[in-house]
Amino acid sequence: MTKEKLQHFLQRTGFITAAQAEEIAAQFRPRMLARHGMLLEAGKVSDDYFFLDQGFMRAFAYDTEGNDTTTAFYAAGQLVFEVASFFNRTPSREYIQALTDCQGWSIRYQELNALFHARPEFREFGRAMLVRGYAGLKDRMLAMITEQAAARYEALLWAQPEILQHAPLKNVASYLGVTDSSLSRIRKGSSKK
Amino acid sequence: MTKEKLQHFLQRTGFITAAQAEEIAAQFRPRMLARHGMLLEAGKVSDDYFFLDQGFMRAFAYDTEGNDTTTAFYAAGQLVFEVASFFNRTPSREYIQALTDCQGWSIRYQELNALFHARPEFREFGRAMLVRGYAGLKDRMLAMITEQAAARYEALLWAQPEILQHAPLKNVASYLGVTDSSLSRIRKGSSKK
DNA sequence: GGCCGTTCTTGTCATTTGGCAAGCCGTAAC
DNA sequence: GTTACGGCTTGCCAAATGACAAGAACGGCC
Fold first, then answer.
1. Rg (Cα) of chain A, in Å, rounded?
2. Taking the model in full, what pTM does it have?
3. What pLDDT is recorded for position B1?
4. For the Cyclic nucleotide-binding domain, which residue ranges apply (chains A, B) (predicted)?
5. Percentage of chain B exceeding pLDDT 90
6. Nearest CA in chain A to B134
7. Phi then psi for A95, rounded to 5 degrees?
8. A1 CA vs D12 C1’ separation (Å)
């Protein structure tokens, strides 16, 4: 596995040149996860700023009743880490789990911070990643409030069809904010009839 | 109006000393808004990194059916700006509106960026603000999925009772993801009988 | 191959929430 | 004062979604 995808990902934001991307990528180490392996567990402090090169992952948390609720899905080519735990150095409430065998590139908090201090362009990149995640979550929240479950499912199908190929439907259901039974009926096309 | 609250707010994150806070705060300019005045309108680029010293505000957006949906409330002592529009320099989808007469301290994007480049401790502060907002939104999303409307209302009442004193209930309703009729029934205590 | 556990679907019924429309009430305008 | 408007509540009914349980389908494992 080469660092090609990682370098390309760094460049794509526009803040980082090819030469810089190579130097930055050099700081990342390979990280593998077998299917069902955990990148992060609740109670621990997230210490991987992880670029997913191949595979598929999800984040989830248990609510007060003990229900497993999916909070995010990650396809190859995305950054995977728990923002609050990683940057605040606090125990995570979430788990991050490999849904397939995964490989990617990882850097620890200390190293990332050193890079941020040394490289203005990488700081910009880091901020852009935070902003992107934040904006995506806001969109999802707005949809949760204004769209019905069936419409949210359709939108997901359109925007990230890969999810349906890798994640069990019950995880998709909790991500969408419905029960697995309801999702099953939505998929059938007749939510009642 | 003095910059006392702003300076205190800067210090409270732990990254910034009193002396630094004074220097940083010196870069902020006063900004007033009459009740119903707009800090930001959809289509424009957010260019105020605004510390709300006194007053109460809300952010909202129109969904595809034209419904006014409240996306956030802001009490005095909070930072008010639209993250994606401000940092990406893209047109905002949201409005930010004064619910009461407001005053606070504002800095523009260019100036903020200059400060970020010049002052590592302020960068840390800025990142902490992003992370805080992100984490809050994640919590809200989890509650939206796992808690019923009545429970979400109770939680809001417990965590931010000021909102109920300043915002019309229909705004609170859309923030919670319910209709104003439903909120009315929830408040009555008997969501049906 | 046969067993077992998980996932997914489906039926039945209850609960939650929404859509309307009417009415009440307070405030602002004239 | 009277009028007009917006905000809030409430009744009635419909739609959306959940809870629970049974059974089919599938995959891993011995």
1. 18
2. 0.93
3. 74
4. 39-116
5. 93
6. A134
7. -105, 150
8. 65
